[in-house]
Amino acid sequence: MAEYIEGKRPVIEALRTRVPVERVLLADNAQRDGLVQDILRKAKAAGVKVDMVPRAQLDKRSERGSHQGVMAQAKPFPYAGLSDVLAHAEGQAKRGNGSALIVLLDHITDAGNLGAIARSAEVVGAAGIIIPNKRSARVTAATYKSSAGAIAHLPVAQVANVKQALERCKENGFWVAGASEKADQTIWDSNMKGKIVLVMGNESEGLARLTQECCDFFTALPQVGKTASLNVAQSATAIMYEWLRQNQ
C-alpha cells in the first residue's frame, strides 16, 4: 500500500532529506504561498513530478485530514532478501579481518528507532539489518528522516520467522549476541570479534523467548547512574561501537 506524506512542511522535509518520492499531489485550488513554491522548487530539482488534483482526491487519501492541499506519495522501499544481507556480510568479512556485523531487530515498533539504529549501523559499517515482516516497524518517511538518509545505503531484509533467520546466520558462521539488561556480562567483557549478529529487543518487552533461545550469549551496557536503561536506539549504537572497537 502506498505511503502518503501529508502537509506542506512534512513534504518539504521529505524532499529535503531525499525520501524517494514518486510524485507530489497538489490540490488544484491550493494557495501558491511560499511553502508551496518551495515544494515546487524542490520537486523540480529532485526530478519529482507534480500532479494537480481535485482537493477531494486528497481528502479521500488523507489519513489525518491535515494535508493542507499537498501530499507526497513515497516510493515503496526496496527490501533486500536475507541471502543478500548474508552475501554482503561475507564480502565484508573477506575484504577485512574476518569481521562482519548484522543487526536484527526483534519486533522494534517505532520507525524512528529503526532509522536511528540504521544510521549508526551504516556509520560503523554493518552489513545489513534484519526485521520481521509483521508486528514490526517498517521503512517509512520517518525512517529516512531519523536515519538522515542512511537507510538508503544499507540492505534491510524482512523475514517471516526470526528464529529461522538467526539459525541461518549461524549456519553462515555468525555468533548471535542478544542485548539484555539482565545479562551476566557487560559489553566490555563480551567477545564481539568476528562475525556477529546483534539482536535488539522490543522497546517495552525486550527479546522474545524464542529469540533468546537462539542467542549464543547475552550482553549489557555497564551502568552507573539511576536511570533504568537507555532506549533501544541508544543502546544499539553503544554496542555497535564496541563491536567496531574490538574489530579495528
Strand content: 15-25%
CATH fold-level topology of the largest domain: Alpha/beta knot
CATH class label of the largest domain? Alpha Beta
CATH architecture field of the largest domain: 3-Layer(aba) Sandwich
Q: In terms of structural class, how would the helical and strand content be classed?
A: alpha/beta
- Number of E strands: 10
Strand order of the largest sheet: 7-6-5-9-8-10
Number of domains: 2
Mean pLDDT over the residues: 91
Helix and strand sequence? EHEHEHEHEHEHEHEEHEH
* Annotation field: number of helices: 9
CATH superfamily of the largest domain: SPOUT methyltransferase, trefoil knot domain
Q: Could you say which overall geometry the principal axes of the C-alpha atoms support?
A: elongated
Unreliable stretches: none
Integer-rounded radius of gyration: 20 Å
Instruction: Estimate percent helicity.
Output: 25-40%
Biggest β-sheet: count, sense, barrel? 6 strands, parallel
GO molecular function, one term: RNA binding
Family: Belongs to the class IV-like SAM-binding methyltransferase superfamily. RNA methyltransferase TrmH family.
Protein name: 23S rRNA (Guanosine2251-2'-O)-methyltransferase
GO cellular component, one term: cytosol
